[in-house]
Structure formats: C-alpha cells, structure tokens
Amino acid sequence: MNILSRLNSPFIYLICAVIVVFVALLCVIFAVRAYRAGKAIGMDVTRMKRTIVASATFAVLPSVGILLGVIALSGSLGTPWPWLRLSVIGALHYETQVAEAAAEAVGVGGLSASQMTAEAFTTIALLMSVCIMWGMVFSLFTCRRYTDRLSRPAPKKKKDGKGLSLAGFGDRAMTAMFIGLVSAYLGSYVGTLVSGGGLFRFAGSFLPLAVALVGAAAMGLFIRLRERYDAAWIDSFSIAGSMLIAMTAAIFLGKLA
C-alpha cells in the first residue's frame, strides 16, 4: 500500500470526519442560539432571515477557492487531511504556503506525490498544525482583555488629527504581516530574475511573478468596483474571484512558457 492509499484510508477519513462534524454541530448550535437571542431582544425576524439567506449565498463562491485548495493539496497529502484543515481552522493561503515550505525542508520538492513518505507527511502535518495553533492558545488568555479594551470609548485624537485605536492597530498589523509574507515568498523569484541563472530558471521564476501580478490586478479591479458602486457584497467574492483568475492565468501562461 503506497502512502496516498494510506492517507486516503477509511480510518483517516473517520478521524477527520468526526472532527469536522463536531465543529459543524457547534456552528449550528451557535447559529440557533444567535437567532433565538435576536428574537428575544426584539430584532426583526424578516431581516434576520434575509441576512441568513444572504450570508449563505455569499459563502458559496468563496468556498470554491477553499475547494480548489483541498483539490490542490489532496494530490500529495491525501483528501482527508486538507479537508480537515480547510474546513475547521486553516486558511487557504496559509495551508498551501506552509505545506510547500515544509515539503521543501524535508526534500519533497513541490509537494510531489511520488516523493511523499510517511515521515515527510508527518513533518508537514505537524508543522501545519503547530504554526497555526497559537491563535487558539493566546485567545484563552488574551481575548477577554482584548474585547474589554475594544468596548472602551475610543481615545481622543491628537490636535494633528492623528490617533490609532486598538482595532486600527490590529488592522494595520495584519496588513503589514501579509505584505511581509507575500514579499518573502516572491523575493526568491525576484532574486532569481535579477541574478540570472539561465533560461529555464528565468522561466520558472517569471511564471509565479506573472501569476501574482494577474491576481493583484484582479483584486485591484474588485476593490475598484466595490468603491465605485458602493457594493460591499463584492468583498465576499473578491478573494475567491482573484484566485480563480490567477489560476486560469497560470494555466495559459504555463502553456506559453
């Protein structure tokens, strides 16, 4: 039995399914309690139902990107593990990047299914889990204090109009983190282009950069449409839409290269 057959075994499916079903039940319980709480405080039932339908509708397209991530990772990590990660706590951009970094560290280039071993999968799965668990751990000790600070009145701005609230700092810190993350991954390809290294290395570096530019342009277009037409609903589709456009561009550019 090869490694993919073991990773797709009924036993692995059972373990992952139990966790996914448990989390799904928690979501249903919280949704029902929230609906009942809304009725108890006098919220309009019709408006709540419209909100539920709209939220469910807007969740369809973003979930396509998650499904693509599961499909992309299932070729080398099996289906149950990516399904569990991207259904419960994982994020698509995090899972794929950390999985690729861990695979390169253990010598499985490009998450190759032919090179995958039990030891390599264990290392990849462990790294994916350890790196993302700290949000849950820190929330146990800091979330209550953080929410208490958010509920306080906003600090007065200085005379020059400048001032940064706790929530504003969190938004800027998250943006800075993602800029740094993207820069780190694209930096190696930019370095290869600058330093040369032959036609094949140039083509291998140009394709990821070109796809990144296409994805960035698509996201910029979505943001422009959202601001121009004041269409907040576009935010729910922008990430998945940009990913689909970038993936399509990768297919065509890959054939040209």
Set down the secondary structure blueprint:
Layout lengths: L2 H5 L2 H31 L4 H14 L1 H18 L2 H9 L3 H14 L12 H15 L1 H17 L15 H30 L3 H31 L5 H22 L1
Helix pairs in contact: 2-5, 4-5, 4-6, 4-11, 6-7, 9-10, 10-11
Describe the 3D structure.
By secondary structure, the protein is mainly α. The chain contains eleven helices and no strands. The protein has helices at about 5, 10-40, 45-60, 60-75, 80-90, 90-105, 120-130, 135-150, 165-195, 200-230, 235-255. Helix 9 runs antiparallel to helix 10 (about 200-230). It is globular and about 65 Å long. The model has no long low-confidence stretch (mean pLDDT about 80).
Throw out a few tags for this protein:
single chain; 257 residues; mainly alpha; 3 domains; 11 helices; 80% helix
State the gist of this model.
It is built from 11 helices and no strands.
Would you list the SSEs in sequence order as H and E?
HHHHHHHHHHH
Shape, principal axes of CA atoms: globular
Secondary structure class reads mainly alpha
Secondary structure tally: strands: 0
Task: Report the biggest beta sheet as strand number plus sense, adding barrel if it closes.
Answer: none
Q: Specify the oligomeric state.
A: single chain
Report Rg: 22 Å
Pick out the low-confidence regions: none
When the domains are counted, the total is 3
Helix content: over 70%
Number of helices: 11
Mean pLDDT: 80
Distance between the termini: 37 Å
Strand content: under 5%
